[in-house]
Amino acid sequence: MKSRIIMLFVVIGIFVSQSAKAQFFVEYNLGYGTFNMADLKSLLSKDNTVEGLKTTNNFPGYFTHGIHAGFMKGRSSFGINLGYQNTGGQRALEDYSGEYKYQIRAKGYKTALFYRYRLSKADKLSLFAEVAPGAIFNDVNMKSSLYLTASEQSKKDEANLKGINIFVEPALVARYQINKMYLQLHAGYQWSPIKPKLNYNGNKTTVNADWDGLRISLDFVVTLQK
């Protein structure tokens, strides 16, 4: 993991050294994503530990957060993209006799390179095409809890699954300039052609974390002239 991050910075350093008039920029991306999660949805629906269970949360779309940092020269931009996304599902039942909950929460930590090309002339409003290949480091927590009112007894079980997805995210970016700051609308689709099964204590399970879906964000961009 550390070696990959170091390599990303090395590549960026080479790019900078050859770009005398390159402009450094940092973006904060606040967005919304939809997530497929077919395997985890199926796993959640199969839990019938207690009769009468209802699905109260089924891996909905949710807020995403990210940072782009890189350099612009001419029509091209290049750099690294770090991000975070999460979603979850729950089946539950509560009545006079007690309460049962089965929860699955998925977190994805994104590390990627990106390349962006300006399609329109430099102006207040510009349009870009972008592609970002990278990896998603998955952390999936599964938790079940049972509480019986009459005996005041409770039982909890918990497991954490890990795995890494390889993804590519093509996108279109519309940027509006305000002095040295920009506002952006970023719209793309995250697709993982490689989604290995998640691991539990080093052993493969039968499910994967499928983050495929739309990504839309509003970005705040600050630039610094080199």
Describe this protein's structure.
With 226 residues, the chain is mainly beta. The protein has one domain: Porin, CATH 2.40.160. It has two helices and eleven strands. The protein has helices at residues 2-17, 38-45; strands at residues 23-33, 54-58, 62-73, 76-95, 98-118, 125-148, 153-178, 181-194, 199-200, 203-204, 213-225. The protein has an eight-stranded antiparallel β-barrel. A two-stranded antiparallel sheet has the order 9-10. The longest helix has 16 residues, at 2-17. The radius of gyration is 22 Å and the shape is elongated. 25% of the residues are buried. The mean pLDDT is 90.
Largest sheet: 8 strands, antiparallel, barrel
Number of domains: 1
Might you state the CATH topology name?
A: Porin
User: What average pLDDT do the residues reach?
Assistant: 90
What is the overall silhouette? Answer: elongated
> Terminal Cα separation, in Å?
30 Å
Approximate strand percentage: over 45%
What share of the residues lie within helices? 10-25%
- Based on secondary structure, the structural category is mainly beta
Number of strands: 11
Q: Helix and strand string, N-terminal first? A: HEHEEEEEEEEEE
Question: Helix segment count?
Answer: 2
Strand order of the largest sheet: 1-3-4-5-6-7-8-11
Instruction: Look at the structure and give the CATH class.
Output: Mainly Beta
**Rg of Cα set:** 22 Å
Low-pLDDT regions = none
